[in-house]
Amino acid sequence: MKLSLSAATAAALILFAGSSALAQRGGFGHSADANGDGKITLAEMQASRLQRTMQADANHDGKVSKAEFIAAMQARMAERGGGNGPEGAAGFAAAAFARMDLNNDGFIAKDEIAKATAQRFAAMDTAHKGYVTADEMRQSRGGR
Fold this sequence. Notes:
It is a single chain. This protein is mainly alpha-helical. The chain has a single domain (2-140), classed as Orthogonal Bundle (Recoverin, domain 1), CATH 1.10.238. Helix content is 65%, strand content 4%. The chain is built from 7 helices and 2 strands. The protein has helices at residues 2-24, 28-32, 42-54, 66-80, 85-100, 110-124, 134-140, and strands at residues 63-65, 107-109. A two-stranded antiparallel sheet has the order 1-2.
């Protein structure tokens, strides 16, 4: 239990620091736009989501456990002032984890991040332009 708590704490601190940088750069949509052209391609979105998700890998085993993911999301949401407290953040994080854990093994691996991101991107790029904007990403999350 002590190891799990330490891993969760480390994941929270890592994601907390990373989310400060995101806020300074204008949020997730802006950070995903690697070349700054206002268009987020699948490759840019996958790279951004991979980097953000793997920050939660507190024990550096190359995959993110549900506990690591939830702790990191709770920290990020607490920093932003959202999620209706720790319980609301945990529920939101658990649902997000379930969407990304495609093989239901209790971990998110890098290949699952790529596949889940491709599915999400396809749902947002309904006009099949090959890119989405930060506004389209926000709209797909209900304006968050």
